[in-house]
Each structure stands twice: as C-alpha cells, then as structure tokens.
C-alpha cells in the first residue's frame, strides 16, 4: 500500500480533486448527536452489576492467589512425591519414600521418610515450588514442618533456600528433633530476589527422619493473615470495586467425575488437614497438559468468604447439582433415596451419594456462612475466627450444565433451599452456549419455574460481541434476571492456545457491555472469565489478570471491566441516536447512567473505528451542570496491542478534564477507544 500523501498527490494529478475518496469518519460531516434523556430515567442498576469470576484454572489458587511456595507440602497427592526430588549426594541417601505408619492424623495419612547411610551435607530432598518459588530480598518468610526422628544420629535438619542457579539465598537449622511428631517453625529471609528459587532440606548426620507438612509462606499477605492471600493480586481485584465474587468455578465445581467434584466441607478447618484433590484442568488440554496440577485447598470456602468481605463483594458460591462435567464423564447422582439412618442420602444399592446429599451440602453451606455460633455449621465458622455471619444472600445451583438432566435436578434442589432459606437468591444455568435448542428449552423452563437468575455464558470472536450488543434489548422484562456469568472475546478460536488479550477483544467487550448496561433492568450481574493465569502454567487463554511468581498486571480487558465497575451508576438513562438508529450503527456504541450518589451523568462511548470521531452529546433535561467534566479514555491505535509484565500499562486509562458550556456539548472520541464521560447534572 502506498503512503497516504503519495496516494493523494496521484489523485490530484489525475484531476480527482473532490473528497469522496476520504474515509467517512475523516470527513467534516456534522457530528452524530447522542441524546441522553436525563429527564426520563429508567430502571435501577444493580449495586452488584459488575463482579468477579474465580476458578482454579491456570494455577489461579495454588501458585497464584494462595501464596504457599511449597508444592505438595503434605505428600497427599495421588503422585505422592510430585514437586519433590531426592538429593542423594555423597552421603548415600538410602531411603526416600512415602509411608503411612503412625501418621500425623487420619486426614494427613502420608509422610516422607529420609534415611542417610553416612553423615554428609547433600542427603535430603528439594522442592521445586510452582514453576519455581518467587522470593524477595529481605522479605520475611515462615518455614515450618512436622518432623520426628528415627534410629541414628540425626538431631537436626538444614533448610536452604537456593536461587534458580543453585546459589544459597538463606539458610536455617531445625534442631531438637524428637521421636514424636512435632511442629517446627522458623523465619527465612532471602539475601536476594529470585523468581524461580527452590527449597532444599538435608539431614545433619546419619540416620532416619520422617517429615510432613512442609511449608514456606510469606509474611507479606493481604491483611497480614497467617494463611493470607497474595497482596498484589488481591489489590488488583479490590481496585475494581467488584459487586460480587463467584467461586470456586467453573468446571472444577463439577469435576471430571463426581468423586473429583469440589466438596466445600473438605476445604474448611485446619489447613494441614485439608485433603488435596487433582485439578480437573490438569490434562484437559493436551497442548497444555499439567499433570502436577492439584488443589491443596489452602484457599478454601472460608478464605473465599473472607476474600469477598475484604474486597467489598457479595459472595456467590456455586454448588454441584449432582452432575459431573458433561464434557467429561457426564456422571449423574441418583435423584433421591429412601434410606435412613447412617445411609441417608446414599443410594442403597451402590452407596453413592444421591441428590439429597448435594442439597444438604447447600443448606449446610448457608448455615456455615450465616448461622449463629449455636448452630453446628455456624460454630465451625466461629471456630475458624469469624464470629459474625458472612451475610450470604445468593448461591448458584450447578455451574454450566444443560439438558433435562440438569432441569430435573435443579427443580427439587431449588425448592428445598427455598423452603429452608426463602430469602436466598438462586442462580441457575442455561448451559455453555448462548443460543441453540438446549439453551432455548432451558431458558423457557427456568422462566416457568420463576428462576431468579439465569447464568448465560459467551465465548466468541470479537465481532460476535459487537454484533450482539443489542442482545438484551429484546428480552422480556417479566422473566428471570440475567447473570452474564462468563464471557471473553476469543481472538483466534474458543480454547485456542493462540488467543491473546488484544485491545480488539477488550474494545469489542466494551461495546457489548453497553448493551448490558443499557438493559440493567434485565441484566443484574456480569463477570469476565477466567480471572487469573500464571504466565508459566496456564491452560486457557485469554484471562483478565496475568502474573508470574513475583509480579502481576491487568490486561486491556481488565481495564474495560474496571471502568465499567467504577462507573456503574445507579439508574439507567435512555439514549437516543439520530433517526432512532440502532446502537452500534457505524461502530458507535453508547450507554448512559445517572449516579445519584454523586449527582453526575455518566456516558460510556465506544468508537470502534481507526478514525477520530466528534459526537454531540445532549444531556436532555439536565440541570445544575458543572463547568467541566471528567473524561477517562482507554485507547490504542493498534487493535492488536496488549499489556505485558514488561509493559503492564501499555494500554491503560488516561484521565482529563473537558469544558461543558451547556447541556449540549461536543466531544471528540479517539480512534479505537472506550471513553467514560462524567458530568455533574441533575434532572
């Protein structure tokens, strides 16, 4: 292609002196008038409108939000020594084996036995961490383990934190070993920062030592909690001011089989006693196989509720409805059982849990979250250090199930929950696709059942999001509320490892979200998915936030979500385009809300065009206008632009002021931009 100046010279030379060759957006045509009907407010915008979807995929929990640095600390995984490697050295380590004789507890049944034939400095084992261990210079970490001594002269252990290249960063000694299990704890302070350090434990002397529950945990956690979360990741979440936090997923709620499903009751209580489980994402994608991916449940349901409270979000736990993932085994729990006594809730023939068990789990969870100390499950919450209730208001029944198998289980499940807790709102599932026969049948039936929220998911190419910005314009105002529970534009194809968090994807999502906001009387909640991904250990892309062992950043998509959440307002304001043109025509997308708390009108505009575009904004009926407004602009001339660890704010919001001379003013939108305008003005 010829450069534009040369091209124009040739046109002039050919006598083509008109302007018809110029792109339409670059011509000096009158700006499009956008009428925001401040004097005709619509329905309310839910205070929970924009929130977060968490799933333990991409090392989002262990190795991510949950900052334990030791992988497989209790040797309880199926592969008991995953994450560990023997150091035999010149000392002749004779025994390196996982055993079960006289364990620490019934739920922590395995430990490792080390036996050195002769004394030496290199007999022991090393833990690799989660793609290494990210440690910071002079930061404090707590090392702890359980140990007991056997025959021989080993009275102590040497603990060494080493860099990726094997240089010592810190060293300490665990002394005073006895013949009984005992917990030892000591501080570790690295002399240098390293993103891929590892932990070495060696025997001081010849003989036998049993070791279990090995931990290296940073002191610097969110709110400085002993079992706290990684602060930079929590800060990114809190900065969004999310309305809700959906957890723990996602497909891990279902499991590949029912035996591998997420069971919340096994994720509370003493952290050392929580039994790990294979992560259902470990081998889902052959191109990103991760056989070492387990859930330790150090981040369990208590911690999820605590996180929700910390970031000001409503907790939204999702519970299994008696169905394993339909993309895997599609295993179903029997509908019900008449067995009583110790077999209540189990199939009398197979002993497998029936739907009754899953329903009881949901009812018990509500008691755990909200019940008094005098209740059995409320007492467990209090014992974990949270006397006040978590004020749970809603739960999800099933994650992404579909078909008659889901609907026949959902109905008795929802009925039982409502009978016990009538004020709890329930989120139901419309399946993994936003259209088609199964989607239509589910939506119809859930409407007949007076469902409160229907969870709809959409993963599609960027153009789908722009083309469907009017999706909810056509929805009935009398049906269930919509939870746009999972969405993300896919730059290549759904599930492709080549998908990128490009500005094209984020801008298209911003366009789609004008339709969510414009229809906030129908759409009550929305969340991008997935939320977190480790740059060295992901299974799915794109994702909202990426991180390594030391650093993190928000993607272009993160900033779109954040701008919507920070500017959600309180009331829908109708928007009219000239000639009642369709929103999105000529790639201009608009929505508006009033923020009754600040007295401002908030207008969101997406210019999906490579040219700047001037619009005329008419705040019809607005009074008490401010003389200036605030513009927040997210833009890039390059639709393929991305943020990275090296350039975390390559595409990030920029704020400026603009003059407001009257209720009608001009504003020029940058090319390929998402703009939020805030103007003081009441009806």
Automatic annotation (TrEMBL):
<protein>
    <recommendedName>
        <fullName>non-reducing end alpha-L-arabinofuranosidase</fullName>
        <ecNumber>3.2.1.55</ecNumber>
    </recommendedName>
</protein>
<feature type="signal peptide">
    <location>
        <begin position="1"/>
        <end position="26"/>
    </location>
</feature>
<dbReference type="InterPro" id="IPR010720">
    <property type="entry name" value="Alpha-L-AF_C"/>
</dbReference>
<dbReference type="Pfam" id="PF02018">
    <property type="entry name" value="CBM_4_9"/>
</dbReference>
<dbReference type="InterPro" id="IPR008979">
    <property type="entry name" value="Galactose-bd-like_sf"/>
</dbReference>
<feature type="domain" description="Alpha-L-arabinofuranosidase C-terminal">
    <location>
        <begin position="485"/>
        <end position="673"/>
    </location>
</feature>
<keyword id="KW-0378">Hydrolase</keyword>
<dbReference type="InterPro" id="IPR051563">
    <property type="entry name" value="Glycosyl_Hydrolase_51"/>
</dbReference>
<dbReference type="Pfam" id="PF06964">
    <property type="entry name" value="Alpha-L-AF_C"/>
</dbReference>
<dbReference type="InterPro" id="IPR013780">
    <property type="entry name" value="Glyco_hydro_b"/>
</dbReference>
<dbReference type="InterPro" id="IPR003305">
    <property type="entry name" value="CenC_carb-bd"/>
</dbReference>
<dbReference type="GO" id="GO:0046373">
    <property type="term" value="P:L-arabinose metabolic process"/>
</dbReference>
<dbReference type="GO" id="GO:0046556">
    <property type="term" value="F:alpha-L-arabinofuranosidase activity"/>
</dbReference>
<dbReference type="InterPro" id="IPR017853">
    <property type="entry name" value="GH"/>
</dbReference>
<keyword id="KW-0325">Glycoprotein</keyword>
<keyword id="KW-0732">Signal</keyword>
<comment type="similarity">
    <text>Belongs to the glycosyl hydrolase 51 family.</text>
</comment>
<dbReference type="InterPro" id="IPR055235">
    <property type="entry name" value="ASD1_cat"/>
</dbReference>
<dbReference type="Pfam" id="PF22848">
    <property type="entry name" value="ASD1_dom"/>
</dbReference>
């Amino acid at each position: 292609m010829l450069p534009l100046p040369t091209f124009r010279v040739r046109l002039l030379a050919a006598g083509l002196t008109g302007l018809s060759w110029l792109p339409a957006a670059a011509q000096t045509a009158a700006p499009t008038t956008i009428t925001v009907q401040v004097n005709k407010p619509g329905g309310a915008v839910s205070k929970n409108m924009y929130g977060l979807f968490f799933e333990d995929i991409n090392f989002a929990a262990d190795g991510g939000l949950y900052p334990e640095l030791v992988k497989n600390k209790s040797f309880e995984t199926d592969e008991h020594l995953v994450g560990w490697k023997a150091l035999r050295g010149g000392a002749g380590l004779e025994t390196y084996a996982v055993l079960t004789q006289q364990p620490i507890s019934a739920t922590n049944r395995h430990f490792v036995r080390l036996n050195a034939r002769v004394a030496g400095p290199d007999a022991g084992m090393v833990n690799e961490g989660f793609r290494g261990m990210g440690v910071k210079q002079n930061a404090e970490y707590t090392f702890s383990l359980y140990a007991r001594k056997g025959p021989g002269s080993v009275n102590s252990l040497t603990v060494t934190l080493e860099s990726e290249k094997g240089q010592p960063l810190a060293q300490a000694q665990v002394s005073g070993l006895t013949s009984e299990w005992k917990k030892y704890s000591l501080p570790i302070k690295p002399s240098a920062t390293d993103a891929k350090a590892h932990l070495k434990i060696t025997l001081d002397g010849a003989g036998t030592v049993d070791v279990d529950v090995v931990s290296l945990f940073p002191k610097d956690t969110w709110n400085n909690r002993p079992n706290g979360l990684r602060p930079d990741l929590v800060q990114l979440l809190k900065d969004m001011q999310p309305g809700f936090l959906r957890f723990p997923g996602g497909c891990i709620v279902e499991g590949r089989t029912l035996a591998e499903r997420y069971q919340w009751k096994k994720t509370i209580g003493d952290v050392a006693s929580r039994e790990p489980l294979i992560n259902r994402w470990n081998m889902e994608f052959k191109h990103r196989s991760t056989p070492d991916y387990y859930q330790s449940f150090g981040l369990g349901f208590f911690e999820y509720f605590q996180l929700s409270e910390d970031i000001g979000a409503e907790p939204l736990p999702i519970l299994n409805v008696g169905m394993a993932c339909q993309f895997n085994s599609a295993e179903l729990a029997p509908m019900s059982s008449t067995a009583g006594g110790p077999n209540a809730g189990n199939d009398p023939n197979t002993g497998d849990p029936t739907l009754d068990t899953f329903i009881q789990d949901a009812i018990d969870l509500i008691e755990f979250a909200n019940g008094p100390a005098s209740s059995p499950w409320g007492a467990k919450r209090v014992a974990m250090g949270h006397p006040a209730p978590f004020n749970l208001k809603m739960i999800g029944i099933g994650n992404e199930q579909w078909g008659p198998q889901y609907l026949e289980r959902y109905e008795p499940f929802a009925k039982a929950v409502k009978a016990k807790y009538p004020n709890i709102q329930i989120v139901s599932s419309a399946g993994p696709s936003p259209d088609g026969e199964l989607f239509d049948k589910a939506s119809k039936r859930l409407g007949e059942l007076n469902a409160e929220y229907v969870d709809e998911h959409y993963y599609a190419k960027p153009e789908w999001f722009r083309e469907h910005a009017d999706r909810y314009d056509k929805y009935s105002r009398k049906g269930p509320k919509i939870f746009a529970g999972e969405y993300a534009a896919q730059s290549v194809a759904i599930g492709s490892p080549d998908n990128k968090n490009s500005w094209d994807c984020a801008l298209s999502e911003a366009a789609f979200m004008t339709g969510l906001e414009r229809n906030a009387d129908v759409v009550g909640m929305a969340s991008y998915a997935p939320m977190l991904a480790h740059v060295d250990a992901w299974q799915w892309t794109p994702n909202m936030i990426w991180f390594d062992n030391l650093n993190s950043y928000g993607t272009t998509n993160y900033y779109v979500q954040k701008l919507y959440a920070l500017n959600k307002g309180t009331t829908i304001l109708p928007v009219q385009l000239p000639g009642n043109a369709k929103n999105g025509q000529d790639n201009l997308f608009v929505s508006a809300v009033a923020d009754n708390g600040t007295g401002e009108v908030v207008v969101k505009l997406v210019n999906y065009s490579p040219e700047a575009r001037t619009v005329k904004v008419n705040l019809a009926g607005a009074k008490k206008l401010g003389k200036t407004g605030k513009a927040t602009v997210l833009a890039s001339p390059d639709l393929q632009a991305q943020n990275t660890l090296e350039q975390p704010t390559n595409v990030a919001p920029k704020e400026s002021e603009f003059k407001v001379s009257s209720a009608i003013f001009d504003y020029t939108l940058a090319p390929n931009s998402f703009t939020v305008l805030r103007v003081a003005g009441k009806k």
